[in-house]
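It is worth pausing here to work through a concrete case rather than discussing structure prediction in the abstract. The textbook approach is simple: state the sequence, then state the predicted structure, then interpret. We follow exactly that order.
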Amino acid sequence: MDDELRSLRPLATLDRRGFVTTALAGGFAAATLPVSAETITTSVDGLDAGEARIPVPGGLMPAYYARPARGSKLPIVLVVQEIFGVHEHIRDVCRRFAKRGALAVAPELFARQGDPSKVADIQSLMRDIVAKVPDAQVMADLDATLAWARTRARGQEGKVGVTGFCWGGRITWLYAAHSDAIAAGVAWYGRVVGQPSPLQPAHAVDVAASLRAPVLGLYAGKDTGIPLDGVEAMRAALTREGASAAARASNIVVYPEAGHGFHADYRASYRREDAEDAFKRALEFFRGQGLALQDG
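Step two, the predicted structure:
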């Protein structure tokens, strides 16, 4: 393990111009409790995993990382959180990718706005933290996360992917249009349409035709928060005249009987068959774009 990762020290709490969380909370976010009996726990055996601090404008951002204990030139997967932050489910997703040979890292992208793990109801979480997070801040923080990860992938030749869930699914589409450093993205039930605002000036459908990396979108036919007409609008935007090669190489898969959060094995929304198929598709899509991920 890197010396820096062995000797992490608590950070002083800063005001709202800086960071208001100092470390990742353990366990599951309060708003997700109680946790389902179907919750998957991936072992750290054979992995180097833990918490890190990533230098970003204004301070050091907490993050969770997992990678194989051995190996070089690791592919990198940026894992983008749900609205609940980098809680145990997101950390487990990192370990799942690490078991397949990647360095997976999930930065706490709400660190300047608050600690989502402590908020017990979703309405307050959305109003007090999520709604205050600027897209521009998120893009810059993911850039910083990728720069940090490249120095810890034991070589610079591994390809880079990004994947995100719910809130992070929308961010995955945006980052695939923002960054020319990634090879592919996988967006899980991320919002694709919406009204622009000062903090969110564009949505996925607005940038679809200009993607710099292909994205696999994984959506649910019974998602009441993301209607299928919006998903179909996104599909059309990917193939409109003048769309980039990356846009045309993108794909959207809809699971007809699934609802929002069908991959979230710690919640009642989990659908095992669809989640397993979708994760298999995600791995195949990443491999097709050059990420050297192993079968699990």
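Step three, interpretation. The first strand starts at residue 47 and ends at 56. Strands lie at 47-56, 59-68, 76-80, 103-107, 160-165, 184-188, 215-220, 251-255.
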